[in-house]
Amino acid sequence: LSPSRHGNVPLARRRVGAWAAGAGLGAVALLPAAPLGRRYGWAPAVRFAAGAGAAVAVQQALVALAVRRQASAGGPDGLGVVDLLTLGRGTAGAVLAGLVASGVRDRSGLAGWTGFVALCGGSVLLDWLDGPIARRLGTSPAGAVYDLESDSWLTLAAGAAATAWGGLPAHCMAAPAVRYPLLARALRHLRYEEVFASEPRYARPAGIAQMLLFTAALAPFGGRVTALAVRLAAPVVGPVQLAVMLAQHHRLGLGRARR
Amino acid sequence: MSPRGGRAELTGWAAFLLYVAAVFLLRRALDRR
């Protein structure tokens, strides 16, 4: 198999357009709407569908933009299997955002389990498997952007959910939220790849600790021990992750950077 | 905490850890093949 005009992607040649993919991902994100409607009433289900649907629509609008840029630079004009797996993480974030929008706060019930399954599916299964699958099938030039952005969006949505029904203090949202204004500032001086070119060694454990905290706060089976662990960890993990984000931003040396 | 609640919590975390371990092993297997 020789590399096609789609770049060095010999095995995963099948590609779908950003909007077709969006329809599929949107359908997956909206799957819980019917059971949620039966359990909590139709108004929360409609709010869920609106929130999750809007999140997938915004995601795919941005993806369509990235695909267009990629294609105009000679890259593939669509999304491959690996891209879809990566964007599945964003869809998990959309489910969490939909649940936050629904107004239902039922950690140990259907809504809580829906969010927890979406979180674990996105942050463990899809996150850990898309790397090795990408190494086998190849990825698109924009794959790294989808990867970083899906990660950040899933983290932000998980933080919002953990704050909404996991009993987490609101300050834990600061780190995942501040990432966006910091990125916007960095992009005024650097290219996207340059912003994420090097990551300090402490960033990964801090990020994992934050995701673990969100996971524990959202665990539908969490009891008193889990609640105590969350209560003790939150005042440390939240501010530490915020400090890590600020330190990472400071490391970019934007004051010294060229435009 | 009731013994039942404590057991459910423990079972939940055990299942979660099993799931994480299974995905980890699957990832390693995919990387090796």
Characterization of this structure:
With 259 residues, chain A is mainly α. Chain A contains ten helices and no strands. Chain A has helices at residues 18-30, 33-40, 42-72, 81-102, 110-137, 143-165, 174-187, 192-195, 203-218, 224-251. Chain B has 33 residues and is an all-alpha fold. Helices cover 91% and strands 0% of the residues of chain B. Chain B contains one helix and no strands. The termini of chain B are far apart. The interface between A and B is medium-sized, with 19 and 17 residues.
Brief synopsis:
The complex is a heterodimer of chains A (259) and B (33). By secondary structure, chain A is mainly α.
Short key terms for the protein model shown above:
heterodimer; A: 259 residues; B: 33 residues; mainly alpha; 0% strand
Number of helices of chain A: 10
What portion of residues of chain B is helical?
over 70%
Distance between the termini of chain A: 42 Å
Largest sheet entry of chain A: none
Helix content of chain A: over 70%
Q: Main interface pair?
A: A-B, 19 and 17 residues
Low-confidence stretches of chain B: none
* Oligomer designation: heterodimer
- N-to-C series of helices and strands of chain B: H
Structural class of chain A: mainly alpha
Radius of gyration of chain A: 19 Å
Global outline of chain B: rod-shaped
Backbone shape of chain A: globular
Q: Strand portion of chain A, in percent?
A: under 5%
| Chain-averaged pLDDT of chain B | 90
- Count the strands of chain B? 0
Tally of helical runs of chain B: 1
Major pleated sheet of chain B: none
